[in-house]
Design brief:
With about 260 residues, this protein is α+β, with helices and mostly antiparallel strands. The protein has a single domain (about 1-205), classed as Rossmann fold (3-Layer(aba) Sandwich). Helix content is about 40%, strand content about 20%. It has helices spanning about 1-30, 50-60, 70-90, 95-100, 125-130, 135-155, 175-185, 240-245; strands at about 35-45, 110-115, 120-125, 165, 190-195, 210-215, 220-230, 235. A 3-stranded antiparallel β-sheet has the order 1-2-3. It has a 3-stranded antiparallel β-sheet with strand order 6-7-8, with no helix packed on it. Strand 7 (about 220-230) and strand 8 form a beta hairpin. Helix 2 (about 50-60) packs across helix 3 (about 70-90), helix 3 (about 70-90) crosses helix 4 (about 95-100) and helix 6 (about 135-155) runs parallel beside helix 7 (about 175-185). The radius of gyration is 25 Å and the shape is elongated. The termini are far apart.
């Protein structure tokens, strides 16, 4: 049972490392306008003690390579961890307690690096992030998100939508920064579904985007919606309904008629 458990943790750790490795490659290949980029690694957490680090090292190996001494060390370690957890959380069901103790994700942490145009790397801490320009701050925050979505969506069917939803997208980011982020999303071939105030995907790096501009009338107590389409060169308003038809809209929106 312990060998099977070790093998499952090993396989999931390997899969996670592969995914993060692909994220790192994608992130480093996308540079900011300043020439900088961001990298990511998945390292053992700083708070682990020596015994926890040793057991993590054992779990990095395939279970078939573990000898009896290694299995005994793992058994003793997890037994002690379970005993400690039960003493701290007596109210937890045993299944939840086991899931907590064996959650391999808690044993590691994400570490980001800021990579200069010359290739030198510096750990991207909160303090280092605060010294970046506004645009660089936004890109360094969104780049891991876009890279993670890209890596996960690559496992889907090649014709499947690559949808990523963002609420209040790019709030507080200036027009230059928004343009860079839109271009970055286009590089990752993501289909963004966004809401936001005064948000327009009408930048040169965006091939096409449909917008709905909503206007509220406090007098009529209604909200009107105008479709505008960016075709890569200009923003077109759907004043006659032709664009809606071209996009395959079912035409089921309700229109308020005047009272008799």
């Amino acid at each position: 049972l312990l060998a099977r458990l070790a093998q499952q943790i090993h396989e999931r750790t390997v899969d996670a490392k592969d995914l993060i490795g692909r994220m790192n490659t994608e992130m480093r290949s996308r540079k900011m306008s300043s020439g900088k980029t961001v990298g990511v690694r998945w390292l053992l957490a700083d708070g682990l003690d020596d015994e926890q680090r040793a057991v993590c090292g054992l779990l990095d190996a395939d279970a078939s390579r573990l000898n009896p001494d290694s299995l005994a060390r793992m058994r003793g370690h997890f037994a002690a961890q379970i005993k400690t957890a039960r003493a701290r959380h007596r109210e937890l069901p045993y299944r939840e307690l086991l899931a907590q103790v064996l959650d391999y994700r808690r044993w590691r942490q994400f570490v980001f690096q800021m990579v200069s145009p010359e290739g030198t790397e510096e750990k991207l801490t909160r303090a280092r992030h605060s010294r970046l320009s506004g645009g660089e701050q936004s890109v360094s925050l969104h780049l891991p998100l876009f890279a993670a979505a890209h890596a996960m969506l690559n496992s889907a069917h090649q014709h499947a939508p690559r949808l990523l939803a963002l609420d209040e997208a790019f709030a507080g980011v200036d027009d230059t920064g928004r343009g860079e982020l839109m271009g970055l999303a286009a590089q990752f071939d993501l289909d963004l579904f966004m809401t936001g105030y005064d948000l327009w995907a009408a930048q040169a790096g965006v091939r096409a985007a449909a917008h709905y501009d909503l206007a509220h009338s406090p007098i009529e107590h209604t909200v009107s919606a105008l479709l505008l389409v960016w075709d890569g060169a200009q923003l077109l308003a759907d004043e006659a309904g032709d664009l809606s038809a071209a996009l395959g809209s079912p035409g089921t929106r309700r229109t308020i008629t005047a009272a008799a």
